[in-house]
Amino acid sequence: MRRWNGWGDDQFNLELPKEGQRFLDERVGSAVPLADVSLEQVCAQVPDSRLPPNPACIGAAEDRVRHARGQSLADWLAMRSGDFGVFPDGVAYPESSLDVQALLQYAEENDVALIPYGGGTSVAGHINPVDGDQPVLTVDMGRMNRLIDLDRESQIATFGAGTPGPLVESQLRALGYTLGHFPQSFELSTIGGWVASRSSGQQSLRYGRIEQLFAGGRIETLKGTLDIPTIPASSAGPDIREMILGSEGRIGLITEVKVRVTPLPAHESFHVMFFPSWDKARTACRKLVQNRTQLSMLRLSNATETETQLALAGHPGMIGLLESYLGLRGAKDGKCMMTFGVTGSKRQCRNALTETRELCREFGGIYTGKKLGEKWAAKRFTMPYLREALWKLGYAVDTLETATDWDNVDKLLNQIEENLRNQLNEKKELVHVFTHLSHFYTQGCSLYTTYVFRVADSYEETLARWQTLKTSTSGIIVNNRGTISHQHGVGKDHAPFLPVEKGELGMLAIGSLCQTFDPAGLMNPQTLVQK
Amino acid sequence: MRRWNGWGDDQFNLELPKEGQRFLDERVGSAVPLADVSLEQVCAQVPDSRLPPNPACIGAAEDRVRHARGQSLADWLAMRSGDFGVFPDGVAYPESSLDVQALLQYAEENDVALIPYGGGTSVAGHINPVDGDQPVLTVDMGRMNRLIDLDRESQIATFGAGTPGPLVESQLRALGYTLGHFPQSFELSTIGGWVASRSSGQQSLRYGRIEQLFAGGRIETLKGTLDIPTIPASSAGPDIREMILGSEGRIGLITEVKVRVTPLPAHESFHVMFFPSWDKARTACRKLVQNRTQLSMLRLSNATETETQLALAGHPGMIGLLESYLGLRGAKDGKCMMTFGVTGSKRQCRNALTETRELCREFGGIYTGKKLGEKWAAKRFTMPYLREALWKLGYAVDTLETATDWDNVDKLLNQIEENLRNQLNEKKELVHVFTHLSHFYTQGCSLYTTYVFRVADSYEETLARWQTLKTSTSGIIVNNRGTISHQHGVGKDHAPFLPVEKGELGMLAIGSLCQTFDPAGLMNPQTLVQK
């Protein structure tokens, strides 16, 4: 069953190997975990629903608890401490666009705020209800989870917006197709959520971001139904798809999503290459993407992430052998690990692999074959479970991500890491920080930084530490040519930083769009735009 | 010097070979040209300017004549007959964003309508002034034509918005780079115009549409300056770039454009393949693009276009030999010509060529080498001059274009061609119609239809015939899953058809955006949105 207070399936537990524990103990210090509350304790706190009666709205405490929070570290601390703050007043589970239309009408007639809920995997506060006089109804799209149509000639599939990643892929694969969209949250997040928050998947180099995959669909708004037709490309004015992408529930509720799919590839494999230094590794990655080498996936860990991953992997014997070999080839301290994938016809994969190996050789790249790549592929969606394992040992872990142009990658990366590393100095607490680059464009790339720190002796103080880390770094990002989010969206947590990125007139444009479709402020209020 | 009443440089004339004349005579009948008016005659008609005095605004008749019309067939007929209707009241030639700001202030203070003018190549009435009480000032961006900055690491170039195609490429090529954006209008159209009208270039398979190339820039609006920062990709809400792309002057005047550039490729070549039938040819093209073969350019002429191109090429001896060879290989009547390009590293080009030849062989493709491809490349920007040559023989020529999903390509193509072919039946006039597919996506492609008919014995009747052809076909396009424009934009000519494509709520979104930035209706009124 799904964990009510953390990530994923409660039958799946990731254990941190002894070597990993020792490594964290060295880097951050030994830690004492905080105690968790039970689901029953939280349910007992849930206040009476303020919703006017509607048989489509469930007011049961457990439904409301399970829909109150996403997966940010602040959400995690709320779920573990029981200090939820606000609960939605009810949850609806529509099964059709008509059901959604009825909910919109109900909301309008009764001044009820609506929060669209896909997989509940937001790490930016998209689905958290806010305190106020309006009753709040969370609309869980999970029952609209079917493949509705597949046009094999045009390679377009139509899905119910609440279809989660595994159901997207299994329904397509049964017919010989794939969407190829694999965000870290794949196990739980939904196709409608991907569109609403402009997500990006691990194989974006081949399949593109959700912007490239989203071909059209249906959005139910307070002004009526917005049907976006599928057209391969158009110069007929601003693209309505692009207004829905990233709209985060402010314009309407996405009920149907049409996406561009691909026949299952003939070949796919993942590989690992090590580089003796960050400079060489980063330059090689930039050259690969600027050379338009047909890779499907590329990820470059900086030296600290490389070291951390090798330490946390367990298998000290095997890792020792690998490190000896790399050392002999010139990659010692400061070495960086690059993981890459090739997908397509056999010829395309062979050529891409050859091009990659040739180009990387110029930068001292040491190819280590498919073994570590296969390991990455096998574990690609299990990383979020690590938070549970670390939590039980007394560590809090969170991530921050952005994207910037190549000329600014190093500067911004150092600013982010340095700020996180030193932010708790006054508290005499260490923060372990590491980064990878994981989505590549000719113009720049994304930066994905993970940071680990010890929980304090109270939830309040732990939350305060996180807020310091998160807020100060978010400010650094937007003031230094980074986007406030490359793949997690804005939600409520990033909303204060959005105006720096978009500018006054950019916010005017977005605000007027929300206002046009939702003059009464019922649609996911305070998300994306702070008002 | 630039032709005042037609396309391009008046020193360049394309002659239609005898065989071409004979071909048209057979298909449409022999024709009698209409007489042209002179520039002096038109200048003499220009009324007094209604603009309040401003030294930045030139009221000279010739400037106003030269900025009154674009390049649609209706524009052509106006320029040749002298029946212009409306002239702008003046033309400004700003040299900086500050100049543009001053013009905006002047327009706001004096209720003056502003029309942004790039290369004046619109074929949809973007830059035509409309009749009304507001004085109209055309803002010619042509003096802002420099490469301002090149970031080699991030591969981003910054240009003045008025930079025309040849100056974009020559300034970049001097530094070893290319933008790779080659619309048919390349010789005259500008980088700002490409953004404002969402254009697409002949090598969009490699370089992408302008949407993929436009990285950010500066737009001067009545509400202030909108600076769009360059960020490789972002999930931070709706993308402001996408609101400017296709905004056609309704939001503001683009003054600076930042684009994603590429180092000059090591290799580039163009090739031609013939297919025995349309069905096989179209399927091969679809498979090539769905297979993600690294082509840079692809164009497929249907049987009538193939026949027409071979007839109009001249060189009957050489063409005769080619046709004999193709006939022996099984491609006779109904054969279709596919032109394709490969661009990139030598390995990429070699692989793409091999993949293409292998795949096409399955569909009866007959590869004829580089000769015809090189010819296409040499003449790629001269096609618009053909209108002048045909006009002198008494023929009017125009094009229509759209894009649709693969499952609808044939149906829509037949509807378009049939409608054009039969539209003048009552007048007992023949229309020669042919089509090519020229921008390919996994989901579908663009359809580009050319039609030739005889001019009538008056300009009025010729215009009326064109209106019948254009209006009826535009209606067919939007009512049958086509976009009203894949690459020419909306302007005033396509604006009546946009609501069918975008729907009521799509128009609400676009309209509210325009309204937000331009409540007084000064910015290119009646373009894009009819109000």
UniProtKB/TrEMBL annotation, chains A, B:
<dbReference type="InterPro" id="IPR036318">
    <property type="entry name" value="FAD-bd_PCMH-like_sf"/>
</dbReference>
<dbReference type="Pfam" id="PF02913">
    <property type="entry name" value="FAD-oxidase_C"/>
</dbReference>
<dbReference type="InterPro" id="IPR004113">
    <property type="entry name" value="FAD-bd_oxidored_4_C"/>
</dbReference>
<keyword id="KW-0274">FAD</keyword>
<dbReference type="InterPro" id="IPR025650">
    <property type="entry name" value="Alkyl-DHAP_Synthase"/>
</dbReference>
<feature type="domain" description="FAD-binding PCMH-type">
    <location>
        <begin position="84"/>
        <end position="264"/>
    </location>
</feature>
<dbReference type="InterPro" id="IPR016164">
    <property type="entry name" value="FAD-linked_Oxase-like_C"/>
</dbReference>
<dbReference type="InterPro" id="IPR016169">
    <property type="entry name" value="FAD-bd_PCMH_sub2"/>
</dbReference>
<dbReference type="InterPro" id="IPR016166">
    <property type="entry name" value="FAD-bd_PCMH"/>
</dbReference>
<comment type="similarity">
    <text>Belongs to the FAD-binding oxidoreductase/transferase type 4 family.</text>
</comment>
<dbReference type="InterPro" id="IPR006094">
    <property type="entry name" value="Oxid_FAD_bind_N"/>
</dbReference>
<dbReference type="Pfam" id="PF01565">
    <property type="entry name" value="FAD_binding_4"/>
</dbReference>
<keyword id="KW-0285">Flavoprotein</keyword>
<dbReference type="InterPro" id="IPR016167">
    <property type="entry name" value="FAD-bd_PCMH_sub1"/>
</dbReference>
<protein>
    <submittedName>
        <fullName>Alkyldihydroxyacetonephosphate synthase</fullName>
    </submittedName>
</protein>
